[in-house]
Design brief:
The longest helix is centred in the N-terminal third of the chain and has 19 residues. The termini are far apart. By secondary structure, the chain is α+β, with helices and mostly antiparallel strands. Strands 4-1-3-2-5-6 form a six-stranded mixed sheet, with helices on both faces. The chain is built from four helices and six strands. A hairpin with a 3-residue loop joins strand 2 and strand 3.
């Protein structure tokens, strides 16, 4: 099966920060278990960046749900990565807290259009972060 990778960026409604993240983490864990989703979410208390990896069908459905303004609010950026080697960047789904400077640096890389560098930086940040 073809692998699809998406980077999705957004901010949680300030009135819903505590509950929104918990709801999304539950939904993401279920998708990871049932649909072989890998990747993760980095969260700085307000803003989040996700890497979604999985089948084209699985990731397209999650992107559709996110676009409807689910638990985490409406994403500000949805970027599908160009087809690569067909290998996943992550072996599982993880969620982690990072400092705002990490989110800022990833935003700059996304805006610069260097998606493969963004992918590498995301994975590095996820591995170095405090798991949620």
């Amino acid at each position: 099966m073809a692998l699809a990778q998406w980077v999705v960026v957004g901010s949680v409604d300030p009135d819903d920060v505590g509950l929104a993240v918990a709801r999304w983490l539950r939904a993401a864990r279920q998708a990871a278990e049932h649909d072989a989703l890998t990747g993760g979410m980095l969260f700085d208390g307000e803003r989040w960046i996700q890497l979604l990896e999985g089948t084209v069908v699985c990731t397209a459905e999650l992107v559709r749900v996110l676009q409807q303004g689910g638990a985490l609010g409406v994403p500000t950026t949805l970027q599908q990565l160009p087809p690569g080697t067909g290998q996943r960047a992550c072996t599982q789904w993880r969620s982690a807290y990072v400092e705002p400077a990490v989110i800022d640096a990833l935003h700059r890389a996304i805006e610069a259009g260097v998606m493969l560098a963004t992918l590498a930086a995301f994975v590095h940040a996820l591995e170095a972060a405090d798991s949620l």
